[in-house]
């Protein structure tokens, strides 16, 4: 062993001697370069032999050399300054990270305020009461109310119930023989004429059976194959929110899935292809034409109105919904669907009313029925707009990244599904399979962990959605932890992308370990896979 130490000593000594010689050589070279006495003696030895032209050349040479060395020293100095400038202290780094997060939140607040202003602006669109309209003949609000009441003395009741200032705010009634809403009136005529016969609904089926039957129907009748897990997530979403977002690459069935669901419930889904030119609510709800004195009705408005007359579940597909900015044309609908009281969910269509307006339209407004669900499809590529948090917070996103493998399915017939029965199943599930107290405590701890390490909290809306989604997901055949895992990944981890992955990538491994410790290493597979994808996006190995 002594021989090894002697060898190691001589080996390292030789290396350090060589490094010393290199440093000494550099030092001697610098001293030699700046040996001013040598240069003076050298000049003195030749100055007697220099001609006047030589003197001028010698002086210019000295000046140029001094300038050259001065520039070299200045560049070295500036280089050191630049290196020191970009060496940020840890404290400054944390301040920068906090400032970035704060600025992002300010931008989110500004976008939210902009959406509110836009919603207020577009909600006032409709009939423009001008001189041409007045020429048609407009009665006062009081006369409109009195004309609608039967001669039973109810006019006195109205006068006692409504203050004078409220009566004056009633919408104006237009006298016209023209149908302002021909499509909606045709809906009235069909359903109110006795031609419509309500179907027989299957009210004995469970949510799990609905999921299985739909999957088998799509495979056996339509040749479309979907993972059962995705079907469970979709029907659990319908018990949580009115807006479902299907996102992923092209060709994974984002549009065909809700289309097949409409076929399955024998109430075809309405497909509304979103256009890049969509800028406001008129693209969905239509607009009043002052020249024709008619309302330009859209299929979207007609589908909503028609849903008043039946109990079937109805699906409206906003295909490629982010090819235009969702906040521009769907902001008002998001606000209406967010209202806690269902009886207040009215859409202002026009600012006046006529005697021959559709039967279900009240004072120019249409109620948004509960049996209509909205499915938006999203492609995340360079040709589309990013969807804001306002939209994601009010919806449930589901990723369709892969096509399901074909499988042998028994021949399954379609079924008529009553929304009232479906709503009853959701309510029973929320009472029977409510999130356990143990997992609620774990969610509180997880919320505190996110606040401490990522400055991100659950929020009341997301927690409410978790409490609604998980019971419905269990009733569809899932488990409680899998339901919490799905919601955590889609509603919380998705927000990490807006925080700046470069700042949080060092904390992601700790989050995985924390989830393992809190919920078990075998659970939260969706969330852990999402976190690993976030690490790859941040450039971390």
Number of strands: 13
Number of helices: 22
Mean pLDDT: 83
Strand order of the largest sheet: 4-7-12-3-13
Rounded radius of gyration (Å): 37 Å
List low-confidence stretches.
Answer: 122-168
Molecular shape: elongated
Largest sheet: 5 strands, parallel
Percent range of helical residues? 55-70%
Helix/strand-derived category reads: alpha/beta
Distance between the termini: 41 Å
* Range of strand content: 5-15%
List keywords for this structure.
541 residues; 5-stranded parallel β-sheet; 3-stranded mixed β-sheet
Can you walk through the features of this model?
- The chain is α/β, with parallel strands linked by helices and 541 residues long.
- Helices cover 57% and strands 9% of the residues.
- The protein has helices spanning 2-33, 36-47, 52-85, 90-123, 131-136, 141-148, 154-161, 164-168, 182-192, 207-221, 228-238, 256-264, 282-285, 299-306, 326-338, 389-394, 419-432, 437-454, 460-475, 480-492, 501-519, 525-537; strands at 138-139, 172-174, 243-247, 270-273, 287-289, 294-296, 314-319, 346-348, 352-354, 361-362, 365-367, 372-378, 395-399.
- The chain has a five-stranded parallel β-sheet, sandwiched between helices. Strands 1-2-9 form a three-stranded mixed β-sheet.
- Helix 4 packs across helix 15, helix 18 (437-454) runs antiparallel to helix 21 (501-519) and helix 20 runs parallel beside helix 22.
- The chain is elongated.
